[in-house]
Amino acid sequence: MLVCSWLVWFDVRPCPAVVVAYLTPSRAVAGEQFESDLMLAGSADAIGDVIELINVDIVQSTINTAALSDYSRVRFDARPQFALWHDGQQFGSGSPGFESQIVLDSFLPSEPIPYEITTTDPFSVGTLTFDFGGLGLQPGDTITLDILGRDDGTATRTTSIAIRASGASETTLVNPAFSSPNGSEKSVFTIATAIPEPGPIVFLATTLLGAVVCRRSRRRA
Q1: Average of per-residue pLDDT values in the chain
Q2: Could you tell me the pLDDT band of residue 194, with boundaries at 50, 70 and 90?
């Protein structure tokens, strides 16, 4: 089976994954948002190979146990080396049936700029930011970002990577592995219990202490 992306034909066939993908642990950011970085890393035998396309699908993401339905709550911001790969389309804005996916394509620029794997060190592709404002979530509720993708009847899942081996002219679409000790296909965020700011607490404690001292002073008088 052949899949066409822009002007490149990809040979889609089962083969050992040579790229590991994972999401970093979630971290809270300003407002009712959290973010996680999409990371990739090549195995030792992938050094010298190039990545030409990255397809990311968050269809398996959930809010508590319910499937995420509003994919536009997730924004993707590419790292500078992948910025030209991204046409600006965000989750939730794709054609019917593909709203949960975004595509990064090295052939978007007039001169293709594939990413060469030069080490086994992980590298960041971009950041996914989830806005959960207005959902009425309670402390202890969880949101799970999941980039595993799904089976769609082809040889690869909907989260997949196009790789061209060093010195080869053929590009192969593969499923990434999710086996990194630094993270997996999931990044879970738990709504924290609200904690009063230090200012009011200090003010209240000072006021109560002042009242106690005042009462003792009056008794001694």
Answers
A1: 86
A2: low
| HEC profile of the chain | CEEEECCEEEEECCCCCCEEEEECCCEEECCCEEEEEEEEEECHHHCCCEEEEEEEECCCCEECCEECCCHHHEEEEECHHHHHHECCCCCCCCCCCCCCEEEEECCCCCCCCCEECCCCCCEEEEEEEEECCCCCCCCCCEEEEECCCCECCCCCECCEEEEECCCCCCEEEECCECCCCCCECEEEEECCCCCCCHHHHHHHHHHHHHHHHHHHHHHHC
Could you tell me which of 45, 1, 11 has the C-alpha nearest to residue 172?
11
Find out if CATH 2.60.40 is the number for domain 19-218: yes
CB-based contact 187:68 (threshold 8 Å):
no
pTM beyond cutoff 0.85: no
How many degrees, rounded to 5, is the angle at CA 146 between CA 141 and CA 149? 145
Q: List Cα–Cα distances, 212 to 33, 60, 202, 206, 218, in angstroms.
A: 42, 57, 15, 10, 10
Q: Identify residue 154 by its one-letter amino acid code.
A: T
